[in-house]
Amino acid sequence: MTTTDISELPTHADDSQYSLTKILAIWAIVAIPMPLMAFVLAPTLAPKLNMNPLILIWLLMIAGMIWQFIVSVWLLYRELDKFTWAAICKRIWLQKPRDPKTGKASYKLFWWLIPAFAFYALIEMTPVSDTIGRVILIPLPFLSDLPDLDLSDLAAPEFVGAWWLMGVALVSCLFNYFLGEELLFRGVLLPKMRGVFGKWDWVANSALFALYHMHRPVQMLGFIIGGLAWSLPSRHFRSIWFAIILHGFEGIFVLVGVFAVVSGLAF
User: Fold this and answer.
1) How far apart are CA 240 and CA 95, in angstroms?
2) Chain Cα centroid distance, residue 134
3) What are 105's strand-pairing partners?
4) Cβ contacts of residue 15 below 8 Å, gap of 6+?
5) Which residues contact 196 (CB under 8 A, 6 or more apart)?
6) pLDDT for 173-183, tens place per residue?
7) What pLDDT is attached to residue 15?
8) CA dihedral 193, 197, 199, 204 (to 10 degrees)
9) Which pLDDT band, with edges at 50, 70 and 90, does 20 fall under?
């Protein structure tokens, strides 16, 4: 008796897939504002508000991620017959991972986080991602002139005692790793991309997520490869928790780094 991969089964009437036009429209709605805020709005407002440019960009990026949350909720509200927590969890795969052969849900499948994290670390925590990302400078060398949105530049004595930055960091992490980017890309989009991209929907999802980072253009290409560590297990086991946990690991460094700065331990 043979088993069937549940991800290969035909979609049901209540699981209609997005068209390519809809996928790209959703991507554009959340992606286009980011570079406009980072490279146009922030430089314009910073002198008028007498604010640190990087802090302003960070706040604007958080606003962009909150916008993603709003778009996600609106899409889910329109799609779901019953806008209940149970229906939302099922739709965005906020559930225990499921064996793709049997359909049985089990927490034991989370052990796949280990190889997924190993791949992520190999790409994102070594020069590999940066090297891949800088390939974009070959055809588009002018991108190197854009400001590098690196929060490590906030490691300055002037922010010692600025404990409000911990609040900013917490909100940033919440929307970056759960309610914003992950909810939209892995929760709303990924379950609806198979109709267009077939078994390569997880690759297309990672590419869309990477290209959304137009506000960090020199890192985009690297994100395509690194993002596969999040999209593949999320798709394979139909659980957004893989992406939330793996992507959220970055938040530890953000929170620790900001704490070290505002407490003065970094100096």
Assistant:
1) 7
2) 20
3) 98
4) 191
5) 17, 18, 19, 20, 23, 204
6) 999 999 999 99
7) 67
8) -80
9) very high
Indicate the domain borders of the chain: 15-263
- At residue 202, the 3 state secondary structure works out as helix
The residues, any chain, with a CB within 8 Å of residue 180's CB and separated by 6 or more, are 64, 65, 66, 68, 69, 174
Taking each helix axis from N to C end, the angle separating 241-263 and 164-174, rounded to the nearest 10 degrees, works out to: 170
> Can you tell me the distance from the alpha carbon of 145 to that of 246, in angstroms, rounded to the nearest whole number?
31
What kind and span of H or E run contains 61? Answer: helix 53-79
| CB 225, CB 132: distance < 8 Å | yes
Three-state DSSP at 30 gives helix
What are 178-229's pLDDT values in tens digits? 999 999 999 999 999 999 999 999 999 999 999 999 998 888 898 999 899 9
**Residue 241 burial class via C-beta count within 10 angstroms: exposed 0-12, middle 13-18, buried 19 and up:** buried
Could you tell me which residues are beta bridge partners of residue 98? 105
Element housing 68 (H / E): helix 53-79
pTM over the 0.85 mark: yes
